[in-house]
């Protein structure tokens, strides 16, 4: 007779002894304490003692006026938004069975924000209910697109986050375009785009608060079916749950809650990600009937805690100038990085499908290169002719020979640095994207997804805020420092007994979100009313470029392109899987570091030259593989030519389509790149399903 030894049960902790009801009450008490602290903060001299004296017949009405007109609306807005986003995040994570799903990572908030900004840009003054409905439609459209591209999240976390992040990037680009073109109509929406709890009355809370409570009640009632759904689709179907209908209804509820939150206070980032994650860490809380309302209460704590901390560190005026969404985004980025570090395997997304093509002959490759070079030369020629002042080809020839008048000479002397800046920056971003996709083994990755572009943007914007008249080389140094810091953080945080490509991408997205939040903080603290300059820079623009600004990009290309060519065979093996390079003797980590280091240098110099331009590092390498095959010896030159062609055409379009006004080149690349990216995701989804 054998005896099985069992480990003694772990001693119950105080929280475990409380049970789920006790944890719920304790969290509610924490919310009450946070609310009491929150209401004592503000820009006026009214403090806690003044508010305490109010119930005892204080004759001074100033404290009551401050409380009712400013502090109470702000507090109730924070509570409303926290509940809505916390519950929305809990529902989305339960429906997709993905701990990184949230209104932010699924682009719901970005879609709602774009819809509201579009209404403001076109001069539509809508009542609150209609604004909420518009935000709901925008959020639904974005969520439907992301969930369709990621097969409802069932194809893995990495694919879901990439689809959501790219969709959000495209929507933010469209929103920034509206903010630039309709600056007067959208005044104040830039800071509001990171969330704002500043409220002039209780209208938004009183109208949308009951709707949020009803949606939360419906979510709580669906708790038992969510418990069954967590066992798996097949098990839930056997137990009588209509899985498709349940997912649809709960997704609609989540989007409704997120849209209501955006209507009240703008898109406050990552609350819907953080709150459910914190709830899952609490012991003894497992049933969705408890986790859903708990996520709402924890969401309130995150929002109020961020607002309290913001004003405690920067003073009461910071509550007006700085969006609390900046703080929640930083906190959420940290949570996302923590989740990604625990992430081990992405299943089918570890080696995501790409468009396979047969190996091309050398003649076909040379034909493609020649065609791309001719198209690029045509784009440069068109860029020199086009703009707010169109010139003739003969004038361009005369300028090259030094025979033009003063007016045309001035125009062309100002234009050629812009054209060359677009060409060099596009080439640099395409080469960087080629290296990043090989290292990540993911054709949906790009330098922006690894936080490199956003880190370079933080460095450049910091210098612009501190020293607006800084020279070219300080700007380059600031951009390279920011890019290096971001990329080093991503690499070190991704290392966990080895480097997983999925973990690298997920942590990169988290660092990108943190860098974006820091950029917004710098802009609103430095000059909250002059956002057009910063928006133009962050959207990628060649305006005002001078020849000296081209030198860092040209030097980076001269250094890094030979390096990538030298590593071409190693990158071919690295893009296959983790084991083949090791078996064949490829020094894996040195190759990764060299490729990532080169991409960081290229991205930073491109950002210092033209600002933040997205999608080029994603589209150009993939299009090159579709044309000439997967070998990096052929992909690299074609990708460089295509990247230069894309940014050059985008810059020319931006300078001419609404001249004399201008659309930044980065926004045009986003508009051109989004449909291609959607098609790419959809095609790879079809291949994965097949």
UniProtKB/TrEMBL annotation:
Record-given protein name: Iron-hydroxamate transporter permease subunit
Species assigned in the record: Planomonospora parontospora
Organism lineage string: Bacteria, Bacillati, Actinomycetota, Actinomycetes, Streptosporangiales
Keywords of the record: Cell membrane, Membrane, Transmembrane, Transmembrane helix, Transport
Single GO BP term: siderophore-iron import into cell
Domain of life, source organism: Bacteria
Example of a GO cellular component annotation carried by this entry: plasma membrane
Keyword Magnesium assigned: no
Subcellular location: Cell membrane
């Amino acid at each position: 007779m054998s005896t099985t030894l069992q480990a003694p049960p772990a001693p119950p902790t105080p929280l475990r002894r409380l049970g789920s009801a006790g944890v719920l009450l304790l969290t509610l008490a924490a919310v009450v304490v946070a609310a009491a602290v929150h209401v004592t903060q503000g820009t006026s001299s009214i403090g806690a003692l003044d508010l305490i004296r109010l119930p005892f017949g204080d004759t001074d009405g100033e404290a009551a006026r401050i409380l009712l007109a400013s502090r109470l609306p702000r507090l109730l807005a924070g509570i409303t938004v926290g509940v809505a986003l916390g519950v929305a995040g809990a529902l989305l994570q339960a429906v997709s069975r993905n701990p990184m799903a949230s209104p932010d990572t699924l682009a719901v908030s970005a879609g709602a924000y774009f819809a509201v900004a579009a209404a403001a840009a076109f001069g539509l003054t809508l009542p609150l209910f209609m604004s909420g409905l518009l935000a709901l439609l925008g959020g639904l459209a974005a969520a439907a697109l992301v969930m369709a591209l990621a097969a409802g999240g069932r194809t893995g976390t990495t694919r879901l986050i990439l689809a959501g992040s790219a969709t959000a990037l495209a929507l933010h680009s469209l929103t920034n375009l509206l903010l630039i073109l309709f600056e007067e109509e959208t005044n104040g929406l830039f800071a509001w785009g990171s969330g704002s709890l500043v409220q002039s009355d209780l209208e938004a809370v009183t109208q949308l608060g009951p709707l949020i409570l009803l949606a939360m009640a419906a979510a709580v009632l669906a708790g038992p079916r969510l418990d069954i759904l967590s066992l798996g689709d097949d098990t839930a179907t056997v137990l009588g749950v209509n899985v498709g209908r349940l997912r649809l209804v709960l997704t609609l509820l989540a989007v409704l809650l997120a849209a209501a939150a955006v209507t009240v206070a703008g898109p406050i980032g990552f609350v819907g990600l953080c709150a459910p994650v914190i709830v899952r860490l609490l012991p003894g809380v497992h049933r969705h009937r408890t986790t859903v309302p708990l996520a709402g209460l924890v969401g309130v704590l995150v929002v109020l805690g961020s607002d309290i901390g913001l004003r405690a560190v920067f003073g009461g005026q910071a509550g007006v100038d700085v969006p609390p969404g900046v703080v929640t985004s930083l906190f959420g980025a940290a949570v996302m990085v923590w989740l990604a570090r625990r992430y081990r395997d992405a299943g089918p997304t570890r080696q995501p499908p790409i468009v396979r093509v047969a190996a091309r002959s050398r003649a076909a490759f040379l034909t493609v290169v020649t065609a791309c070079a001719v198209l690029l030369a045509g784009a440069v020629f068109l860029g020199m002719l086009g703009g707010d002042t169109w010139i003739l080809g003969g004038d361009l020839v005369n300028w090259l020979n030094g025979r033009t008048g003063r007016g045309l000479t001035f125009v062309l002397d100002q234009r050629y640095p812009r054209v060359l800046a677009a060409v060099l920056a596009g080439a640099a971003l395409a080469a960087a994207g080629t290296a990043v996709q090989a290292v990540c083994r993911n054709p949906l990755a790009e330098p922006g997804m690894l936080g490199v572009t956003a880190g370079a943007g933080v460095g450049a914007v910091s210098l612009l805020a501190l020293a607006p008249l800084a020279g070219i080389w300080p700007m380059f140094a600031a951009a390279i420092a920011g890019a290096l810091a971001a990329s080093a953080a991503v690499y070190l945080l991704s290392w966990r007994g080895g480097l997983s490509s999925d973990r690298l991408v997920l942590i990169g997205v988290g660092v990108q979100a943190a860098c974006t939040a820091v950029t917004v903080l710098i802009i609103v603290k430095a000059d909250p009313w002059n956002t057009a300059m910063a928006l133009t820079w962050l959207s990628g623009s060649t305006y005002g470029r001078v020849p000296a600004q081209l030198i860092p990009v040209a030097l980076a290309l001269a250094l890094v392109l030979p390096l990538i060519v030298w590593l071409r065979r190693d990158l071919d093996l690295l893009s296959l899987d983790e084991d083949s390079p090791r078996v064949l003797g490829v020094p894996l980590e040195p190759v990764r570091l060299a490729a990532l280091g080169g991409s960081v240098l290229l991205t930073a110099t491109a950002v210092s030259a033209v600002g933040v331009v997205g999608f080029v590092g994603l589209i150009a390498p993939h299009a090159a593989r579709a044309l000439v095959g997967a070998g990096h010896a052929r992909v690299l030159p074609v990708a460089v030519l295509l990247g230069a062609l894309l940014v050059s055409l985008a810059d020319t379009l931006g300078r001419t389509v609404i001249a004399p006004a201008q659309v930044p080149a980065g926004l045009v690349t986003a508009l051109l790149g989004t449909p291609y990216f959607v098609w790419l995701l959809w095609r790879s989804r079809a291949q994965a399903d097949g």
